[in-house]
Amino acid sequence: PNIFPIYSIVTIHGFDGHREESWTADNGKLWLQDFLPHTIPTAWILSYGYNAYTHSSLSEQTLHGHTQDFLARLSMSRKTGEIMEHLIIFIAYSLGGIILKSVCH
E strands, the chain, where? Predict the structure, then answer.
């Protein structure tokens, strides 16, 4: 049977993170893709990526800029009616948590 998502799970990585690599184990398994959909099949999963590198090319984006970009991308990805109704579960760490907190203010 078709399972329709009722949750949106949104992840936000932290400093020096990556939207996929931050959630990938040493064995190459991407937790968000390889395990989470089987555990919560009613979830639609989105991973937000942004330049958070601190060792080479630093992002010139401000916290406000990251927050605005995140909100714009989240809004665009949730445009359809049934997705807009989903409950959102956020998973964030480090700078990702700060971006999320900034969204909530």
Answer: 7-12, 43-48, 87-92
Locus of tokens 């605005």: 68
Strand partners, 30: 24
- Read off the pLDDT of residues 73-104 as tens digits, 9 standing for 90 and up: 998 887 766 677 788 999 999 999 999 999 98
Do 91 and 11 contact (CB within 8 A), yes or no?
yes
Nearest to 22, CA basis, from 100, 92, 104, 81: 92
Instruction: Assign residue 63 a region (left: φ > 0; alpha: ψ between -120 and 50; beta: otherwise).
Output: alpha
Q: What is the pLDDT of residues 43-59, one digit of tens each?
A: 989 999 998 877 765 55
> CB–CB of 44/5 below 8 Å?
yes
